[in-house]
Amino acid sequence: MIWLRALKETARAGLTIERRRLEPLVALRGAAGLALVVGVTLAMFGPVVAVSSAFGAYQAAIAIYQRSWRPRPVLALASGTSLAVSTFLGYLTASHLPLLLVLLTVWTFAAGLAWAIGTTVGVIAASNVAIMLVTITLPTSVAEAAGHAAVIAIGGGVQALLIVLFPVRRWGAQRDALADALAAEADYARRLRENPTASFDPEPLMLARSAAVVSPRQARRRPAELHGARGIAERIRPVLASLADPAVGVPVEGPERERVRELLAAAGTVLDAAAHAIREGKSVRTPRDAMDTLKKADTLALLSGPPRRAVIRLAALMDDVVETARGEGAGEETHRDRPPPHRLFLRAVKSVRAELRWASPVLRHAVRVSAVVCAGYLLGTALPLGHGYWAPMTSVMVMRPDFSQTYARSVARFGGTLVGVGVATAVVQGAHPGVRLSGALAVLCAFCVYLVLRTGYVAANVGISAYVVFLLNMGGEDAGQTVRERVVLTLLGGLIAMISYALYPAWETPRLRNRLADWLKADGRYAAAVVAHYAQPADVDNQEVRQALLAARDARIAWQDALARAIHEPVRSRGLTRAAAEAAEHALAQMGRSAMLMEAHLPEHGAVPVPAAAALADALRQDTERAAKAVRERRSLKWDGVRAALAEWEDDDTVLSGGTALLAEALEELTDALDDGVRR
């Protein structure tokens, strides 16, 4: 059932095309750049050189679709240049099979390790290897190989130039990330009306934070409405939660609760309006009724204590959101500097070195993919089908570091490849298109790929495979290969890739306890930092609390990603059942929520200290460190220090007392969940 469910979900996702994610102007620009490169090189140098240039321009346009906050022209240039280098080095060894296998091993191993740097780099590196297997067959001399490499690099340069000359949605990715964060806050506010303890997925806020990393030059050109809104969104979330939660807010029923529901609905309306304005780059239309609701005079008379303070803060934050969406108050938040190139390089080297351990999924992927590509190349060459590079090209295109992508989404990629190869080859053999018509069909396929690349990846892979077939026909290559031969080689490459993961896996399931322990430790540090602030009130923008919150978010996302991958794996974790994992996840989410509720009302500098908070903060740090170790070693959790600190608690502050009570409940729930998992 696991396999059938995974394949069913993959097919549904791969065949679904979301219209809102289509960007026809961007696709048209990429296809126009490709057509320009192919047309010029075809007229000047002939069809074979035109094929090489087309691969460079195509790959450069593909690179700009990857999720990255780097400037798009930089991605296009980097992709074209790296492919040019790969092609030239590949040709130098193409006539000597042992040397070529050594190069393929080294190059593919490096491409596998590139996933340690990031998904964008990993995808570009894998695509370079796949395309290199084709382009090295085109030149006939070293001089021609250098020429082909040059036109490939020029193809990437043309795409980069078109991005500069014809920008589409300037700062579009950053706008979308910030708008998604505000829209997520709006949805959260509406859900809190019905469920006062609703959970919030912090991923949109994390993406918005990543999008805010810019160079000083970019910071000077960044639109005013992209300044400050992310910081405001970060402050809104805990205020909304503290206003809605009965533990620190108003009672579950009564006139106060009805008023809170009105306020939450109004906040959601304002946040949606700001998100729409930022996404479209238009002036925000202030929802007057919603703003009036947030500032009703009788609200402050109806509420008291922490809820009253939360309402005052919420109204001020909504004003800030509207002003920021209008482009006002741009100086409220300094930008986050993007590291210079040498620091980025050192960071990349550090990331790769961290994966050079036997248990690393990235290292195992690098070993796996390099072995598969070499085996596929040898088998494809040995079979009497001609142009055996179709097998290793399919393998490197479908393989990913984790099982779920290799066996689930890669099945869709593999199916799309089969359809694309079969249909395009049938067209070539049936219609016998000439050089120019083949080039036009290739450009049309590329446009379709660019259009659906971010949605409907089955359709995208149909277009990619057809694109390669039409280009090769334009260059006079592969003319004798039939549909059957190409399908057989594609099937061979896909099967080798799947078998390799079964023989040499890198399961995520056995590491779930480590991920859970990391999240527990991070949540404990976050809660301790918040509680310690009550013992020694300081500046509300305390960096210790902020850094602890970010670390807790990273650990939570890492756990959720690992759990999502483990669900599709045909192995089970010892001592951590599915039910225990879900219960533990809920407990840790509540632990983080309790800290967030207390953070919403951090005392200002000079406020009266809470002496008991210091002992509780120390106990949280020490007990969560020990508990994280116990989770890894499958032992019962002990909270003696935290229980002792709570037993001496004498503070009557509603927020702090309510928050610590929720924290204690979350720790007990976590203990019960993991003890139950061990017993089973």
From TrEMBL:
It holds the Pfam family FUSC_2. The keyword Cell membrane applies. InterPro entries: Memb_transporter_dom (IPR049453). GO terms for cellular component: plasma membrane. It is a multi-pass membrane protein. Residues 377-499 form the Integral membrane bound transporter domain. Keywords: Cell membrane, Membrane, Transmembrane, Transmembrane helix. It is found in: Cell membrane. It comes from the Bacteria. The chain crosses the membrane at residues 31-62, 124-143, 149-168, 366-390, 410-428, 435-452, 458-475, 487-507. Belongs to the YccS/YhfK family. This is Fusaric acid resistance protein.
